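Q: Could you fold this chain for me?
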Amino acid sequence: MKKNVGKTDRILRTVIGLSIVAAGFFYGSWFGLIGAAILIPAVLGSDPVYDMVGVNTNKKA
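A: Sure. Below is the predicted structure, expressed as structure tokens.
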């Protein structure tokens, strides 16, 4: 998988994803799974949706 998620994008995804996961745990809701779905591309550095649409926020690639 090629890296198509840039540094700023990864930071934003991490902050937003962790916030949603924490809210899911706090409220005892399954809503936290959405946060996990946001975190996965941040950790991997690759987003399949970006690949399908042709978006690349990684300046090194």
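A (continued): The mean pLDDT is 93.
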